[in-house]
């Protein structure tokens, strides 16, 4: 574990590979030290309802939170997150919500994807909004400032490289994984009309900008790895590729 901070927060942006990543994150802590998506000690307890004794034990938080949850704790903190290209994320989100019984989304069950994208929701610059915070209007400048301050901002399309950097930053152990929460009914991007892709991009201009910004930072971090670390990463990538080629 990284001992420089008392609290590590995973800001889990929906449909960025976060469920898979969270399965690795949670392994690194004892159950009593982890608040996981409104669950603590096997009970449904939102962060805002934790008492001081419970907060004292918690060292890790994960959930679909806005930036700022650290303010509920009197501890030094560090964040990490994953971002995804907005077209892929919105498509995955739409088809996931359509096929699942996730509570609170009955309103979009009969919507076309065009209607969904044009309705103020998680389909419009949601990544920027989560980074900025609950009480703030989404703003690219603020989101980039958050990204610069986060310990690691991974990229879903470079999941294994991102995971390797997280392991290095936080001294994680046992980062082997299986893929979770895959949207089986999702159409591929090639099957989506060009006008729908354009519509998604029009409604996610800020998300695209911060995604490209974070992707550039990730690439630079990878280039700065030592020769030994690059060898370790190459071995890890080969191991993961062999495992998933058998699925």
Summarize the structure.
It contains ten helices and seven strands. The chain has 247 residues and is an alpha/beta fold.
How does this model look, in words?
This protein is an alpha/beta fold and 247 residues long. The protein has one domain: P-loop containing nucleotide triphosphate hydrolases (Rossmann fold, 3-Layer(aba) Sandwich). Helix content is 44%, strand content 11%. The chain is built from ten helices and seven strands. It has helices spanning 18-25, 52-57, 86-99, 113-117, 126-132, 140-149, 159-170, 194-202, 205-223, 227-245; strands at 7-11, 34-36, 39-40, 43-44, 60-63, 77-83, 152-155. It has a five-stranded parallel beta sheet, sandwiched between helices. It has a two-stranded antiparallel ribbon with strand order 3-4. α5 (126-132) crosses α6 (140-149) and α6 (140-149) packs parallel to α9. The longest helix has 19 residues, at 205-223. The two termini are 31 Å apart. The mean pLDDT is 92.
Distance between the termini: 31 Å
Order of the strands making up the biggest sheet: 2-5-1-6-7
Spans of at least 5 consecutive residues whose pLDDT stays below 50 are none
Under CATH at level 1, the class stands as: Alpha Beta
Mean pLDDT rating: 92
Measured as a percent range, the helix fraction is 40-55%
Give the helix/strand class.
Answer: alpha/beta
Q: In the CATH hierarchy, what is the architecture at level 2?
A: 3-Layer(aba) Sandwich
Supply the number of structural domains: 1
What's the β-strand tally?
7
Main sheet overview? 5 strands, parallel
Radius of gyration: 18 Å
Q: What pattern of helices and strands is seen along the backbone?
A: EHEEEHEEHHHHEHHHH
CATH fold-level name: Rossmann fold
Strand content: 5-15%
Number of helices: 10
